[in-house]
Design brief:
This protein is mostly helical and 286 residues long. The chain contains eleven helices and no strands.
């Protein structure tokens, strides 16, 4: 119990330090702010209603981008962070520190959750002020927003950690992650109704968490009449909870052994070899 408590305490302290570093790093912060700005710009240029409803397309897009920001932090930003720090030798140093790996994971979870929730809040507030965007209308909608956000992060953060444990290096990580995530952005009903897509595409998108994260957030942010634009004609909140929970369990089952394996495989010779290879290819060491 003492070791577990110490790991949590150390992790929270490390996470707080990393958050302060992030807030002071203008380059990193500008990247996250750019994502919010792009979502607002796209939404601002949409003037029509969602087909078959009186809901502005702007509202649907903002709700979809809200889900994508959560998805992106877990499945793009987190793997890149993990791969970069592995290449820098962070995991190797943590192996020699009692409770180092658990504390490291706590810190990363804290960083990702704060970043994701902050991006979501910024998008919703800025959208409401600048583009007359949607906000929850009552306690029930706020509760739905809370549990969908929580389950959505639980679904993608462990999965992102598992992906980060197996990606080869930071230079290839972004290329390997971006193509499938952009494909899911276009096929999961985040930027236009999924009913406009062929049924087989809808069925494939329904396997992944982004589709259900977006649908759950739409149920919290859009009027109930907008559900007629959904593929099933309903919000299907029990299915949202079921699919996101299944992905959360799968992510945890994959992340823990893969991260332990990545930490065990780290050694000084492997780190030196990676830096030598990067130098020979003309790329700076991570």
């Amino acid at each position: 119990m003492t070791n577990s408590t110490n790991s949590w305490r150390a992790g929270l302290q490390r996470g707080g330090i990393e958050l302060r570093h992030l807030l002071r790093n203008g380059k990193e912060m500008s990247g996250h702010l750019t994502n919010v700005a792009v979502a607002l710009l796209v939404a601002a240029y949409l003037g029509d209603d969602v087909p078959g409803t009186s809901t502005p397309m702007t509202h649907l897009v903002l709700a979809g981008f809200a889900a994508y920001l959560l998805f992106q932090v877990g499945l793009i930003n987190l793997p890149q962070i993990l791969v970069t720090e592995r290449e820098e030798g962070t995991l190797l140093r943590l192996r020699a520190t009692p409770g180092g790996i658990p504390a490291y994971l706590v810190a990363k979870c804290l960083l990702v959750v704060v970043l994701a929730v902050g991006s979501l809040a910024l998008l919703l507030v800025a959208g409401a002020l600048l583009a007359d965007g949607p906000l929850p209308h009552g306690p029930g909608d706020w509760l739905t927003l809370l549990w969908v956000t929580t389950l959505g992060l639980l679904a993608v953060v462990p999965l992102g950690a598992a992906i980060g444990a197996v990606l080869p290096n930071p230079r290839e990580a972004l290329a390997l992650i971006m193509l499938p995530t952009m494909g899911l952005l276009l096929t999961s009903g985040t930027v236009f109704p999924s009913t406009a897509l062929p049924v087989p595409v809808q069925q494939v998108a329904a396997v992944f968490p982004l589709k259900w994260m977006a649908q759950g957030l739409r149920s919290a942010l859009l009027p109930d009449s907008a559900r007629t634009a959904e593929a099933a004609g309903a919000w299907e909140l029990p299915m949202v909870a079921l699919v996101l929970t299944a992905w959360a369990v799968l992510g945890f089952l994959l992340a823990v052994p893969l991260l332990r394996r990545a930490a065990r495989r780290e050694s000084g010779s492997r780190l030196t070899a990676r830096h030598r290879k990067a130098a020979q290819s003309g790329a700076p060491p991570a």
